[in-house]
Amino acid sequence: MSTMFTKRREAVASLLGPDACLLVASNNHVSRNIHHTYSFRQDSYFWYLSGFNESDSIVLIKTDKTGSLSSYLFVPPKDEHSELWDGYRAGPQGAQNDYGFDHGFNNFDADKTIPGLLAGANKVFSLIGYKEDFSQRVSSWVKEARLKDRHTAAIEHLDAGPLLSSLRRVKSDSEIDIMRKGCEISAQAHKSAMQFVTPDMNEQSLEAYYLYKFAEHGSRFPAYTPIVAGGEHACILHYVENDQILKDGDLVLVDAGGEYQYYASDITRTYPVNGKFSAEQLAIYNIVLQAQQEAIAAMKVGNHIMQPQEISERVITEGLIDLGLLTGSAEDLIAEGAHKKFYMHKVGHWIGLDTHDVGAYSDGSNFTQYEAGMVQTIEPGIYISSKSDVDDKWKGIGVRIEDNILVTVDGNENLTASAPVDPEEIEAVMAG
Ligand code: GLY
Ligand code: MN
Ligand code: MN
Fold first, then answer.
1. Index of the ligand 1 atom closest to the CA of residue 356
2. HSE-CB of 246 using CA atoms within 13 angstroms
3. Which atom of ligand 1 is nearest to the CA of 268?
4. Does the pLDDT at position 154 exceed 90?
5. Which of 356, 399, 400, 416 to mutate to test the pocket of ligand 1 (most atoms within 8 A of CB)?
6. Rounded distance, CA 110 to CA 107, Å?
7. What percentage of the chain carries pLDDT values higher than 70?
8. Domain spans of the chain?
9. Among 154, 209, 228, 296, which is least packed by CB within 10 angstroms?
């Protein structure tokens, strides 16, 4: 059986080298209240390697001295009673037949089986500092394996994080196909929401509309809790209460993206509740839009990740000077970080199986260079709270514009471009 998951296990095995093992645990159910759990969401690393959506499971990848791979999946046992109440379990046989693992085991055999599989390996990789309980189990298995095999070199226990996150940072064609579809679903939800919103609507009604639109097209869950922030709430960067009335004359900032087949989308649009930008809102909006468009243009092979950051800071600083919200030379203001009063977060982050996806931003000396297949958000913003020391007319305006950008061999592709950003287009869409 060859799937994107079996191919990944092969790619990982070649990075592990000969005589090595990798252990990665699934997520477990988390209680919400008595007898009820939060909706289960598989661990992203575990999903990346297995495509297996059950809890209480472990992936083990082992290479022999020639570097060739054996794969093991420890899973919940088949159990008629549990399956009647909680649904189908693949069991060890399903792990082999349906998920392409060489060996399937019941999870209650892990403690007695895994030390024997680790014995003889030179290196054992796991995600150190990631899941405390599982880390302790891995440490005890490694200890037991060392005692079993006194004649070979001591087993080195190493962090799998850099290896797995460097793989996850560059998306394959099949991942890009999924992300393109998921991003389109979420972008269309933003476009329809612009037509749905009206003055005096509660923020949570607008939130519910997004969730409905995501689910209707296959993104049952959002990738993160949506931010639906009317007026000055937009100046609270992680505002998630979403329970206030949207006022006529205010903007609404909506940061909402669905999760599609495990991949996140992360889109922000800011639009006028009554369908018409005021002069001040438009002036701020256009600075953010220019910063965003110029930053996106810098996301290409040959550039590094700080270039969009620096461009967004320069455009925003110059724009705020033009409006009289900052005074001084752009060069000095940028050097002293004056823009951070109004633009206090970074321009973006990797996105993939996690909204804030894994993958280094530098190798310790140099910033990461863009490669085809990397996907990053570009999301500059300007936030002017009522506490700011500025003319009253600017107070309470918060704008962010966020898209998901794929680096291609010859430039980039905006995966979320269907959500309108041009202010005239937004007004036209809202006018219906
Ligand atoms: N929605 C989370 C973020 O934009 O980073
Ligand atoms: Mn966002
Ligand atoms: Mn984001």
1. 5
2. 27
3. 4
4. no
5. 356
6. 5
7. 99
8. 2-168, 170-431
9. 154
Check if 266 has its Cβ closer than 6 Å to any atom of ligand 1: yes
Q: What is the pTM for the complete model shown? A: 0.97
Name the residue with the closest Cα to ligand 1, atom 4.
266
pLDDT tens readout for residues 49-83: 999 999 999 999 999 999 999 999 999 999 999 99
The CATH code belonging to domain 170-431 is 3.90.230.10
**Ligand 1: does its nearest atom lie under 6 Å from the Cβ of 379?**
yes
Helix or strand run (H / E) with residue 111: helix 110-118
- Residue 184 beta carbon below 6 angstroms from any ligand 1 atom: no
Q: Which of 237, 401, 402, 416 to mutate to test the pocket of ligand 1 (most atoms within 8 A of CB)?
A: 402
Query: Into which CATH architecture does domain 2-168 fall?
Result: 3-Layer(aba) Sandwich (3.40)
Q: What is the pLDDT of residues 300-313, one digit of tens each?
A: 999 999 999 999 99
Name 215's Cβ contacts closer than 8 Å, sequence gap at least 6: 221, 258
Residue 153 clears pLDDT 80, i.e. is over it: no
